[in-house]
Design a protein that fits this description.
- With 568 residues, this protein is an alpha/beta fold.
- The strands form four sheets. Strands 12-11-13-10-14-16-15 form a seven-stranded mixed β-sheet, covered by helices on one side.
- Mean pLDDT is 74; it is low at 378-527.
- The chain is 30% helix and 15% strand.
- It has three domains: 11-156 and 313-347, 4-Layer Sandwich (Metallo-beta-lactamase, Chain A); 163-305, Rossmann fold (3-Layer(aba) Sandwich), CATH 3.40.50; 414-555, no CATH class.
């Protein structure tokens, strides 16, 4: 799904929700359903779209009124006198499907290019204003402040042939099977009609589409290419539904032809999905180059052609070299832009300063920014960007909302209350303890979010609890619990428990009984715990923890056992 535009912008693009409806202007880049989802529920005037897109949407969503749309034409700038910020927008061909456009916004918020879904080839880039395009390796006259980019294949290394080459491979595959009585084409997606047009012109035949099975695409073709479709079911060329019904029909038809000793029909699927899933040899350049020369047949008898209406990673990298934007945001899927080399090299966290215009665009107050940055830096400067919202693919990763609010002190676990010496769950911490606890919790929770080593969870924190201190890993933890200590391997926690000391593993456990003066806790008793704490455990139906026997007791018990064994 496309992402919501930042709060600092007065318009939305390809999103239809309560938050986007609050925007004053709405843009629809093309008529694919994933970009028009919920438009019937949240549509409001004005919706800017091309004429083709408007007609396709009204066919798909009859509830949407024609009066909500304002038509825009490719290459014609439109000025919007918004009360908050006057801006201009211009539509450019997105090389994706009929009516699909990219949108260039220019205003006080900066220069924004939103590609929608696109096949961003060099020819497509040359249609943009030349001031934004790099010429002969030089920096553009004006760099885009923000590029909202279609990064569908940014995570794939495979090469994708041009649309013209893919269409040629479909035509070639048909020529190589002259005996096929019927040619079934899995071209039921808006954007693949270009294949149907070329097939119809090349072989001089119209293409049959079953209206009862694929009424929506049939209606779309009546608007886009009505001269290539027919209702005659005897036509040699027929459009079939895509995956998975295409395979079901292929299996049935091919099996019937073989059983009757008749020529097999031809099944062609122009798609990138089959190739994208074959990562077993996607990185092998020799196989990749061979793949683009002709259609490939799979084990089910279906022929595949790599036809894509989205850019490959190679095309995206080239486009970024031409445009050299300051920041890149992936529109779908989210955060995929960080996979691009250009983004890794040129969109680092160092490029985002506290006075950057980015924060105004995101409607983030300066004081919020400073407090959050300070908190993140204290946790782990190297991974601070990972704690920020995930919509932006710059390492700052700011979102359309606001940055994460300061970490709140959550409800303490039962063990946490015992560790901090809070005997009554309803008892509130003292103000000076609460302040220190909040800082500890901020660091611990922050590090858990970035997946850092737990051994460093409190290295950054050294706050006093009534004169004590909390640290970890070869450091001591001092916190008065009534005067005692808990020691575990290299970590020590000094906390008074009525004057006794508790040690775990390889150390002694000393804790006085409330009934007896000085002594050691034997196994099976819980009397060393405070009465209210024991009551708390029981009230929550949790077994009261049993203190471990001291190492001295264990050693004495072992000696007594040996003595007894010797006497026997």
């Amino acid at each position: 799904m496309p992402i919501e535009m930042p709060r600092g912008l007065p318009f939305s693009v390809d999103t239809w929700s309560r938050s986007s409806r609050a925007k004053r202007y709405h843009f629809l880049t093309h008529a694919h359903k994933d970009h028009a989802s919920s438009i019937s529920n949240y549509a409001s005037f004005p919706i800017y779209a091309t004429r083709i897109t408007k007609h396709l949407i009204i066919r798909q969503f009859p509830q949407v009124c024609d009066s909500l749309f304002v038509e825009m034409r490719v290459g014609e700038p439109i000025v919007v006198d918004d009360p908050d910020c006057r801006f201009t927008f211009t539509a450019f061909d997105a090389n994706h499907c009929p009516g699909a456009v990219m949108l260039l916004f220019e205003g006080e918020f900066g220069n924004i290019l939103h590609t929608g879904d696109c096949r961003l080839t060099a020819d497509c880039i040359q249609c943009l204003p030349m001031k934004y395009v790099s010429m002969r390796g030089r920096k553009p006259q004006i760099c885009l402040d923000y590029l909202f980019l279609d990064c569908t294949f940014a995570g794939h290394t495979m090469k994708i042939p041009s649309k013209d080459l893919a269409v040629h491979q479909v035509i070639k595959c048909i020529w190589e099977h002259p005996n096929a009585p019927i040619v079934y084409l899995a071209c039921d997606l808006l954007g693949q009609e270009e294949i149907l047009v070329h097939v119809s012109k090349t072989f001089g035949s119209k293409i049959y589409i079953d209206r009862s099975v694929n009424a929506e695409y049939y209606e779309a073709l009546t608007i886009i290419a009505s001269d290539v479709i027919t209702d005659d079911s005897s036509s040699r060329f027929q459009v079939c539904e895509g995956f998975p019904r295409f395979y079901e029909k292929a299996e049935t038809k091919l099996a019937a032809a073989r059983a009757n000793l008749q020529p097999e029909p031809l099944f062609i699927r122009p798609s990138t999905q089959w190739y994208a899933c074959r990562e077993d040899y996607a990185d092998d350049s020799r196989k990749s180059n061979k793949r683009w020369r002709a259609a490939e047949r799979d084990e089910f008898g279906v022929w595949h052609v790599c036809y894509s209406i989205h850019s490959s990673k190679e095309e995206l990298e080239l486009a970024l070299q031409y445009l050299q934007p300051k920041r890149v945001i992936s529109t779908t899927p989210s955060c995929r832009a960080v996979e691009l080399d250009y983004v890794k090299k040129n969109c680092g966290i160092g490029s985002v300063s506290s006075d950057d215009a980015l924060w105004k665009l995101l409607d983030i107050r300066t004081e919020e920014l400073h407090s959050t940055q300070a908190c993140l830096t204290k946790v782990n400067p190297a991974k601070a960007n990972e704690l920020l919202p995930q919509n932006l693919d710059t390492p700052a990763k700011a979102q359309h909302g606001s940055l994460s609010s300061p970490v709140k002190v959550g409800s303490l676990t039962l063990f946490g209350r015992a560790w901090l010496g809070i005997q009554n769950p309803s008892t509130m911490l003292e103000p000076h303890n609460l302040s220190a606890l909040r800082k500890v919790t901020n660091v611990a929770e922050g590090l858990s979010k970035v997946g850092d080593d737990k051994s460093r969870a409190t290295d950054e924190c050294n706050e006093k609890f009534n004169g004590g201190s909390i640290t970890s890993k070869e450091k001591q933890v001092h916190a008065p619990f009534n005067g005692g200590c808990v020691t575990s391997r290299e970590k020590q926690v000094h906390a008074p428990f009525d004057g006794g000391s508790v040690s775990i593993k390889e150390k002694q456990v000393h804790a006085p009984n409330s009934d007896s003066g000085e002594g050691t806790c034997s196994s099976g008793t819980s009397r060393s715990l405070d009465f209210s704490l024991r009551k708390l455990y029981r009230s929550m139906n949790v077994p009261v923890p049993q203190p471990l026997p001291s190492l001295a007791d264990l050693m004495h018990a072992a000696k007594r056992a040996k003595v007894c064994a010797g006497k026997r």
